[in-house]
Amino acid sequence: MTAPVPAPRTALHRVRVFDGYRLSEPRTVVLEGPVIGTDPAGAQGMDAHGAVLLPGLIDAHIHLDGAGNLEQLRSAGVTTAMDMATWQPQLVERLRALSGVSDFRSAMIPVVGDIDPEAVPGVPEDLVRAAIVATPAGAEEGVRWRVAEGSDYIKIMLGPSGPGSRSDRASAGAVVAAAHARDRRVVAHALTVDLPHGRRCRGRRPRPRPARPRVGLAGPGPDRRGRDGCACRR
Q1: Where would a tag sit more exposed on the chain, N or C end, judged by fewer CB atoms within 10 A?
Q2: pTM of the model as a whole
C-alpha cells in the first residue's frame, strides 16, 4: 500500500492576521494542507512583507447562474456562499463537482404558494407547479422532494404568493416542521413588509457589529435575534 503524500508546508513570515475583530502585529503563520499552525520547522518560507491574512469570507446571499459566479467569489476572497434559490437543479449538481472555486450551500428550488405557473419567467411551468406547497398536507412531500434533490436548507417565500401569507400560516409552519424533521434549516424570504405574524417591518437598520466568520440560519430552537424573531431590512 502506498503511503499518503504529506501536504506541503508553507511558512508565511511577517504576515498580519485579521481575526474578524483586530489586526495582529507581523507574525509567522504555517500552512499545511487544511491545517494552520505556527511551527515553521521544515516549511518552505515566504516573506509576506506585512500583507494581511484574512479568514475566508462568506457571501450570505447569491443566486447561482454559472461557474463564473464561483470564480468571481474566489477572486474576491469569498470561500463559501449561500445560494438563496435557483430553479436549475442540474446546474447546482454540475457546480458541486468543480474544484478550485468557492464552496457553496444551496436552497435550490424555493417553496412557493399557490401561484400562477406562468408567474416565474423563464422557468418551466411543471417545475413551478412542483415547487408549490398550497396546503399543510403538501409540506411533507415538498420538503422530502427538495432534500432528495440536494437542498442544503429550505427557502420559503412568505407573503401574498407564498405559503406564509396570513391566510395560510399553517402551511408555512408545516414546511418548517418537515424541514427540521430532516435536519434542514429554514430561511424565509419576506415578499412584503406586512409580516405574517401581524407585525410590520419599519425598516430599522441594526447597529453595526463586528463581523463573525459564520452564517446564521433559522433552525430548531429559539431565535435570539430579537424579541419577536423578526429581522427587518429595507
Answers
A1: N
A2: 0.69
